Amino acid sequence: MRASLVVCIIGLVLLAVLPAVLPARLLIASIQMLVAALFASAYALLSGRAGMLSFGHAAYFGTGAFATVHAMNAFGGTGLLPTPLLPVVGAIAGLGVGIVAGWFATQRGGTAFAMITLAIAELLHALAPQLKGLFGGEAGISAMRAPALGLTFGSTLQVYYLTLAWVLLSIGLLYFHTLTPAGRLTLALRENGHRLRFLGYNVHGLGVSAFAISAMFSGLAGGLQVLSNEAANYAVFDAGVSATVILNSYIGGVGTFLGPALGAVLMTFFSYAASDATQSWLLYQGVLFVLVMMYMPTGLSGLFGMSARLVRQRGPRVAALVALLALGAAVLVSAGAVFIIELLQRLCSQDYRALASAATTLPPVNLFGRPWPPAALSTWILPAALLAGGALLAMAARRRLATPA
């Protein structure tokens, strides 16, 4: 408990001093990471704690975004509320839509529940471009942050600290919810809803409350995104938004409270950095999700628990050795896989095929700052050696784990 508190305090200090060490471009990315962390934490309340897998949480994120952008444009652009309080409008809109959608969706469970949530999000996604008065058509709606409380909110720095304050407050409230009787019953709803009903609890009401609270904080996250971007369009209802929050949450680990936030921060940074470096970044994201689900079903946050158990059972020396071997295996296998994927992506590109059709031999592929002849054996030996080295290190780590202490 004390170690968790120390880690949280260190994290808060790092978040507070981050603007002093980051350039403006990365500060904008940091705002997107904070919004993604709140969205994933809100989603995890429903899918992780209550055990209801929603495929359409973009509906509440988008509703909060559009409610906030309308609130920003109210009264001739002066705003319905002072700028720091505008995310409240997104939260109220998300809560309202969440209560209605949750009342219908939680009538069913399992696959039917997931399909209902998906249908609601797709309905909004299809309607938004048609309802120009409400959603601004395909162009969407833009707005400007109005000065308030002596601040202009014209700089990224002020928006960062406003977003940080809202995200910390919201995550704190979500954590407080887990300590309340309603929060504990939400966990029981996931474990055994039939027993809760047998004990006399209103299971449907519990499901609706978890759905509505999750939608409320999702709407708040949408409102924070609009405050940052000063615009919203129908893309916020896209299925990709719902898929992203699912991937982020499960990669981080929905079984722990901060796991989804951790996954959202890491994956948002990964997409921000990788999308500039390669066209295959979505492939890497998908592969990472598959690998995490196959070999770490508790998510990346589960690594901390696994490491602690390994230290207790085998001692710090063995744990450090196994960690080094596993890290080395991951680095070598990743390097080999990235080399092959990038090489194949360039070989299959339209530009390379046009070059190859005009030449008598296959032209070399420029990759990582040097040319690689695709027909040369040496081009393929390097990734094969990396993969083989990674496999050997993984086998060594596994053998060390199997050896009695």
Automatic annotation (TrEMBL):
Q: How does it sit in the membrane?
A: Multi-pass membrane protein
Key words, A-Z: Cell membrane, Membrane, Transmembrane, Transmembrane helix
Q: Which GO terms describe its cellular component?
A: plasma membrane
From the Swiss-Prot or TrEMBL record, state where the protein is found.
Answer: Cell membrane
Looking up Pfam families in the UniProt record yields:
BPD_transp_2 (PF02653)
Which Gene Ontology molecular-function terms are recorded? branched-chain amino acid transmembrane transporter activity
Q: Where are the transmembrane segments?
A: 29-46, 58-79, 85-105, 112-128, 159-177, 198-219, 231-250, 257-275, 281-306, 318-341, 377-397
What's the protein called, per UniProt? Branched-chain amino acid ABC transporter permease
Q: Give the organism, scientific name.
A: Usitatibacter palustris
Q: What is the lineage of its organism?
A: Bacteria, Pseudomonadati, Pseudomonadota, Betaproteobacteria, Nitrosomonadales
